[in-house]
Amino acid sequence: xxxxxxxxxxxxxxxxxxxxxxxxxxxxxxxxxxxxxxxxxxxxxxxxxxxxxxxxxxxxxxxxxxxxxxxxxxxxxxxxxxxxxxxxxxxxxxxxxxxxx
Length: 101
Description:
Helix content: over 70%
Order of helices and strands: HHH
Number of strands: 0
Radius of gyration: 42 Å
Strand content: under 5%
Number of helices: 3
């Protein structure tokens, strides 16, 4: 008789109640697990690298400033060289025209 009672009670169990428990409890737990995995696998390591990346940007900015300063100095030297060369050429031509009859 007990076995028949148990079988009847099993048949009487409402499946929609079990589905509601799964939807209301299990799926949010799975969602929290996925969120925790994403946090520890992607977000936390990325956040830990932020200071290192800031330092690299600072170093590269300093190098860029030095290179820009050197480029400006070279450009200035190039312009001065052209000016010197053209004035030197003019001077030689002038001297040659004075010497030639």
